[in-house]
# Entry
Amino acid sequence: MKKMILEARINEYAMRDENPHVPWTPDEIAETAARCREAGASIVHFHARTPDGSPEHSVEAYAEIIRKIRAKSDVLVHPTLGWFSNDGDPAARSRCVTTLAKDPTTRPDFAPIDTGSTNLETYSGGRFDHTDRVYTNRTDTLITYAREFAAAGIKPVMVTWSVGFTRRALALIEMGLVAEPAYFLLNMTDGAFITGHPGTEDGLEAHLRFLPPGRRIEWSSNVVGGDLLKLTRMSTERGGHIAPGIGDYPYRELGCPANEVVVALAAKEARAAGREIASPADVREMLAL
Ligand code: ZN
# Structure
């Protein structure tokens, strides 16, 4: 059976009010990445953060983090582009990763392309918050990113939040802008986040029904604001991969554990269901990096 990729999503923009283990500084991120690698992760996805947890967008910060991660382990590196630095100039948002790619010691292995735009409000207790928050990813921007990443030798992670996003990602493959085997992150949303498919088996099934069997696509499941571990079994059985971590959800029901604990739980369940865990070398081969 195909080996299973575990991608650790270690911090996003999570604060520490719920889970105190969210890594922020370059040393914390590198240490977390190494622990997650030991627990079975082959890819680490992270956001640079300042010492007080604010978003950090400088190339220097990302370069420092990537060098520190690579000094501690062989885990593959997947930095964010960052949403809130998007001031309408798409080139500004990808400049960080394309600049990092010029130096082999800081070149990211992956970078995300979210293939659509969506409201990112929250809704709970009969009330909306962040009602002005829109995550904008125009189609001309997606085409630019796909071309830039291909030229820079960075594998795109096609992030799809619903079936329409998937159809747009497939169009980019059909146009030859994104190479196969493609890597898709099938994002779902739960709790106060209502923009995606629910983080349930039905939500994942709705994604999977629109992945054409004729395309070479490896997919990982992910839930923003919900418990992804309850989808480990389905992801394992359906030949997919999984992207767990405390960046998306604090795992209160597990006592707010560190990232490597969540990764280890997913690895254990995947192995119990008969899937071996992929190493970074396996991922390079599976995704033709
Ligand atoms: Zn992220």
The chain has a mean pLDDT of 96.
